[in-house]
Each structure stands twice: as structure tokens, then as C-alpha cells.
């Protein structure tokens, strides 16, 4: 009996084994690619977004970045707090302001370091004509997140409503330093300049 068929069979088995080993060694390389891509493109940080907002070339780009920042600041990190905040928003929409304040009280108690929570409760106090509480909440929000441009702008409006033009201008300018291409803010500053900085001779 000839050994040739056996040799052919053995060679075929070895060839198949080699292909399997090659495929196995190649598999990890394919699975590692997404991992490498993820490492090459990490999530954009809040610091990066604020820098992009300050350096934006036009108003359209600035608005898009500002919207991203607002969404990022709006994350409380707690499902319970998010639920309370959403219910507070619904209550405010239905003009049930005391209920909305109560819901935001609970949210802030659970997440006292969430700057946006204080800012949102300030809006409710402003709607209730309680400017003292609104200012206190905005100041608290700005201690927690000094780059909260909306809180600075709201604080400026409250100071302006109380005819404190100096403080209003300071708050508006702090907001402008963070969001230079905010058109509404620039107009408010221009209107205040003659009263605060004096008129050009």
C-alpha cells in the first residue's frame, strides 16, 4: 500500500490548521481596532466646550457650542433628580409655581452640588417676584460653576431690574467674557455703557 494518499491528507490537515491559527491570530487585531479608535477620539470635555465657545468664529457656531454646554450642565447625574426637575418644568409650564419650587427644593437637597439646579430654582423665584431668593440661588450656582454664562446673564437682569446698573454691567460683562458672540448680551451692555462708563465727550 502506498503512503502517498496519507501524505496528501496530512498536508491538507496541516494547511487547514495553519489557516485556523492565522484566523485566530488575526481576530484580536480586528477587535482591537474600535478600542484604538475610541482612545484616539475621547469625549469632548466641558473645559474644551467653554474654550470653543470663547473662540467661536461666528454667532452660529457659538450658539451650537452654547447649546452643547447647556445640555452638559443640565445633567444632574441622578435619575431621581432628573425626574423631579422634569416634573418641576411641567408644573412651571402649567403655572403651578409653588409646586415647581417644592420639586426643585427636593432636587437640590439630593444634589446640592448641581449648579444648574440652583439656576433653575432661581428662575422660579424670579417668576414669583422673589428677587432676593433668585439672586441668592444664582450666586450659589456661580460658586459651583463660575462659567455658567446663563446664570451671570440672569443675575445681570435681576440687578438691572433693581436699578443696580453697576452690578448689572459687571454680571453682563462676566457672561460676555465666557460667551463673546451672544448678541442679546452685547446689546444689553451697549445700552448700559453710557450710564455706567459715562458718555463720550
Offer a quick outline of the entry.
By secondary structure, this protein is an all-alpha fold.
Describe the structure.
The chain is an all-alpha fold. It has a domain at 74-145: Tetratricopeptide repeat domain (Serine Threonine Protein Phosphatase 5, Tetratricopeptide repeat, Alpha Horseshoe). Helices cover 80% and strands 0% of the residues. The chain contains ten helices and no strands. It has helices at 4-40, 46-55, 59-73, 79-93, 97-110, 115-127, 131-144, 149-161, 165-178, 183-197. The termini are far apart.
List the helices and strands and how they pair.
Elements: H1 4-40, H2 46-55, H3 59-73, H4 79-93, H5 97-110, H6 115-127, H7 131-144, H8 149-161, H9 165-178, H10 183-197
Helix pairs in contact: 2-3, 4-5, 5-6, 6-7, 7-8, 8-9, 9-10
Please state the structural category.
mainly alpha
CATH class of the domain at 74-145: Mainly Alpha
Q: Tell me the β content.
A: under 5%
Share of residues in helices: over 70%
SSE order:
HHHHHHHHHH
The CATH topology of the domain at 74-145 comes to Serine Threonine Protein Phosphatase 5, Tetratricopeptide repeat
Going by CATH, the homologous superfamily of the domain at 74-145 would be Tetratricopeptide repeat domain
Overall body shape: globular
DSSP helix count?
10
Search tags:
single chain; 201 residues; mainly alpha; disordered N terminus
Amino acid at each position: 500500500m502506498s503512503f502517498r494518499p496519507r501524505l496528501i491528507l496530512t498536508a491538507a490537515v496541516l494547511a487547514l490548521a495553519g489557516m485556523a491559527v492565522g484566523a485566530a491570530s488575526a481576530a484580536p487585531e480586528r477587535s482591537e481596532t474600535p478600542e484604538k479608535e475610541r482612545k484616539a477620539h475621547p469625549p469632548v470635555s466641558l473645559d474644551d466646550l467653554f474654550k470653543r465657545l470663547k473662540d467661536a468664529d461666528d454667532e452660529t457656531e457659538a450658539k451650537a457650542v452654547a447649546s452643547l454646554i447647556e445640555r452638559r450642565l443640565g445633567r444632574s447625574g441622578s435619575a431621581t433628580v432628573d425626574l423631579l426637575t422634569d416634573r418641576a418644568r411641567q408644573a412651571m409650564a402649567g403655572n403651578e409655581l409653588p409646586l415647581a419650587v417644592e420639586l426643585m427644593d427636593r432636587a437640590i437637597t439630593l444634589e446640592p452640588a448641581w449648579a444648574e439646579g440652583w439656576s433653575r430654582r432661581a428662575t422660579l423665584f424670579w417668576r414669583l417676584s422673589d428677587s432676593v431668593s433668585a439672586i441668592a440661588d444664582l450666586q450659589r450656582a456661580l460658586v459651583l460653576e463660575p462659567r455658567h454664562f446663563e446664570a451671570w446673564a440672569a443675575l445681570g437682569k435681576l440687578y438691572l431690574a433693581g436699578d443696580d446698573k453697576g452690578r448689572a454691567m459687571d454680571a453682563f460683562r462676566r457672561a460676555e467674557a465666557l460667551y463673546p458672540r451672544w448678541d442679546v448680551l452685547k446689546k444689553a451692555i451697549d445700552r448700559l455703557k453710557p450710564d455706567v462708563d459715562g458718555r463720550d465727550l
